[in-house]
Amino acid sequence: MYRDKTLGVIAGAGPFAGNNLIQKILEQTEAFVDQDHLTIIGWFQPNTILDRTEFLLGNWQDNPGYAIAAQALALEKAGAEVIAIPCNTAHAPPIFNVIQSELNHAGAGALFLNMIEETAAFIREQFPDINILGVLSTTGAYRTRLYPYFLENSGIEVVSLGEDIQNTLIHTAIYDPDYGIKAIGKAHPRARQQLLEGIKHLVSQGAEAIIMGCSEIPLAFPESEVEGIPLIDPTLALARALIHHASPDKLKPWLASGKQPDTPPPS
Amino acid sequence: MYRDKTLGVIAGAGPFAGNNLIQKILEQTEAFVDQDHLTIIGWFQPNTILDRTEFLLGNWQDNPGYAIAAQALALEKAGAEVIAIPCNTAHAPPIFNVIQSELNHAGAGALFLNMIEETAAFIREQFPDINILGVLSTTGAYRTRLYPYFLENSGIEVVSLGEDIQNTLIHTAIYDPDYGIKAIGKAHPRARQQLLEGIKHLVSQGAEAIIMGCSEIPLAFPESEVEGIPLIDPTLALARALIHHASPDKLKPWLASGKQPDTPPPS
Q1: How many Cα neighbours within 13 Å face the side chain of B169?
Q2: In the sheet that A209-212 helps form, which strands lie side by side, from edge to edge?
């Protein structure tokens, strides 16, 4: 007998982004009453997952992939059958390869989705006419050329920021302890302004759409486009992929959901 | 050695409200980096928890308290030490007594907080000068006089709506399959308007503050007051109680958090 699969979300990297993925799973599910929604286990355990960017930059030695794999196994033990982590940077090969080898070694049976592959598939499907994409990301994903790597055989050219802009505008918008998105969980005007400057630089390099390639960035930009340039949200792509794997009939049609107004403020 | 306790959230009743509780736990936690946040397991399994109001109205025989207790035990098995369910109506004694007796019978060791008791404590602490409170709730909580019961020894008078207004304005704002908060997860203008009418009725009966006594209602009213009348959010009270039990040093001061602007739209 067919039944819906149980979803598992490794939600602590970072926690506001984890909450945002669960929110998007709920929003993208066809449901009229509580009981229509899928079973999701949200595992928020940030203290054991060291910062992904610090590891990729060589500042810390401990690979966060081990803790992520351990949490995936805890999720599987609790019943999860399709698992993902809404952290783009955790998909850089030096980390993601460790996650995969640890899960293989442990004989994990759950399916572990790859957020970047799902985003690349989403782009090919929903934005087939785009030739040049701009990427906003952490410095860890930037240095490891995460999106260029996954999009290199797609025929899409990926443009990135210069390293000075990456460090002064984008890294701080995500990580600053006073106004960064990780610290306050939403859009401080300064973080938003800095990311907007980054977007403008990418557009000036020819970008026709922007990948918000760090899962904190959609918390500052919930809208689906800015000044006519589409904003591509990997968290939304991952939410839809998770629903598709758990219960394809419950996935909202993309056109309908794409036409929904962007989280309007209360009137 | 002292360590933070792991929180468990029974998040499927309803799921948007469950995710809102987790969001409020994150917002009320003193944290500057991902790793500062508490460990939270969010258990979204709505399909086994039948509607609380339908049971309380006698329309369905199965008491949802059994499924809620089973999910609490699953959370404890996964590591949760302090557990709560952000559903006011599930705290009506016919349901909550079953949860408690099931957990006692199973020898559960985790602490299960009572959302309504925590809200009553929050009101005594933060709103000591209020004499008359108005309550918005589901019809299940309304019929079982949930808030009047928990506040009866507090010296606070509780005013409620007439049954016609309860049925036509409040129940539909929560449950309508087209515009109700449970169906769309946020504030449809019609749901918000109906709840606002309910608030005005309560104010005309002398209410000095309003308890948003169904966990979907704060999704439509994120602001802390409306037309000068404080809106008391039991989900926020529960979030703060959970942090207090898990790691008191990480609870943000109330005055500071109370002064934060109400979830502003992106500028």
Answers
A1: 19
A2: A157-159, A132-136, A209-212, A229-232, A225-226
How far is Cα B111 from Cα B251, in angstroms, rounded to an integer? 18
Size of interface A-B (CB pairs under 8 A): 148
> Do B35 and A44 lie within an 8 Å CB cutoff?
no
A34 and B15: CB-CB below 8 Å?
yes
Q: For chain B, first and last CA: distance in Å?
A: 45
Q: Measure in Å the smallest separation between the Cα of B225 and chain A Cα atoms.
A: 13
Q: Which of residues 19-38 of B touch A (CB under 8 A)?
A: 19, 22-23, 26-27, 31-38
Closest partner CB to A27 (pick from B31, B74, B185): B185
| Phi, psi angle pair for B207, to nearest 5° | -60, 130
Per-residue pLDDT of chain A (267 residues; tens, 9 = 90+): 568 999 999 999 999 999 999 999 999 999 999 999 999 999 999 999 999 999 999 999 999 999 999 999 999 999 999 999 999 999 999 999 999 999 999 999 999 999 999 999 999 999 999 999 999 999 999 999 999 999 988 889 999 999 999 999 999 999 999 999 999 988 899 999 999 999 999 999 999 999 999 999 999 999 999 999 999 999 999 999 999 999 999 999 986 444 444 444 443
Of B26, B35, B46, the CB nearest to A35: B46
**CB-closest option in B26, B78, B266 to A15:** B26
Rounded to whole angstroms, the Cα distance separating A139 from A163 reads 9
Q: Is A68 helix (H, G, I), strand (E, B) or coil?
A: helix
Could you tell me how far CA B183 lies from the centroid of its own chain?
18
The model's pLDDT over A231-264, given as tens digits with 9 standing for 90+, comes to: 999 999 999 999 999 999 999 998 644 444 444 4
Could you give the CA distance from residue A213 to residue A147 in angstroms, rounded to a whole number? 8
How many Cβ atoms are within 10 Å of A22's Cβ, its own excluded? Answer: 28
Question: Is residue B148 left, alpha or beta, with left meaning phi > 0 and alpha meaning psi from -120 to 50?
Answer: alpha
CA geometry: angle A217, A228, A257, nearest 5 deg: 65
- Contact, A39 vs B44, CB < 8 A? yes
Inter-chain CB proximity B266 and A221 less than 8 Å: yes
pLDDT in tens, A22-63: 999 999 999 999 999 999 999 999 999 999 999 999 999 999
Structure tokens at A167: 């460090």
ipTM attached to this prediction = 0.94
Rounded to an integer, what distance in angstroms lies between the CA atom of residue A108 and that of residue B171? 45
The CA distance from A79 to A39, in Å, is: 10
